[in-house]
Amino acid sequence: MIQHIVNYAGIAVLAASGAVVGIRKGFDLFGIAALAALTGTGGGVLRDLLLGVDPPTSLQRWPDVTLCVVVSIATTVFARLVIKLTQLVLVLDALGMGFFATSGAAISVDHGATWFAAALLGIVSAIAGSVMRDVVARDVPMVMGPDDMYAAPAVLGSVLYVLVDHVGAQWLGVVIGSTVATVLRLAAITFHWRLPTGPYELIAHEHRERIEQRTSNA
């Protein structure tokens, strides 16, 4: 029962983030609802497709997509309030991400995936929806940009679940993996922890030099 409640809560939060992006991009009501559904269920659908679950669970059952549509409508109606509560949405999103990272890995193990595949599919469950949202909205995916860590906590949570589950403690793995992933994500939001980026300044400097050289030659 608790697992289902947390699962729906995670879907709802991700759907709300997709609806907010749709509103900011000026999408119509159908576009907002579609982006909310893609964000809320995209990770689970992709995981199920890779596991050979046909049709994917979120498309087989009506509550998942219906919840996303309802959330998109509520987000649109109360858009000003939702956008003001950005920090609360980020906290709830961290909770959903942590749970999806471990539940995705657990579902994968139950379907016969290897431990390595389960860890990867847990990561997919946690971040794929957000990646799809940003790609459709023509933004650089948040998990790949220089923002506060998002993918790294999902990776750690999924791997921790697999390690604990390997010794036969599935529920303990879910609790430990979800907690660590969520706490790390919240810490990254609070203290602005980020992974090192590539040598952007060096590349930008070289680019400016090429432009200046072309200008002087002309």
Could you explain how this protein is built, in words?
This protein has 218 residues and is mainly alpha-helical. It has one domain. It contains ten helices and no strands. Helix 1 (2-24) crosses helix 2 (29-51) and helix 7 runs antiparallel to helix 8 (151-165). The chain is globular. The N and C termini lie far apart (71 Å). Keywords: Cell membrane, Membrane, Transmembrane, Transmembrane helix.
Query: What gross morphology would you assign?
Result: globular
User: Mean pLDDT across all residues, rounded?
Assistant: 86
State the share of residues found in helices, binned by percent.
over 70%
Query: Secondary-structure element order, as H and E?
Result: HHHHHHHHHH
Short description:
The chain is mainly α. It has helices at residues 2-24, 29-51, 57-60, 62-77, 79-84, 86-110, 115-136, 151-165, 170-191, 200-217.
Question: Secondary-structure blueprint of this entry?
Answer:
Layout: H1 2-24, H2 29-51, H3 57-60, H4 62-77, H5 79-84, H6 86-110, H7 115-136, H8 151-165, H9 170-191, H10 200-217
Helix pairs in contact: 1-2, 1-4, 1-6, 2-4, 2-7, 6-7, 6-8, 6-9, 7-8, 8-9
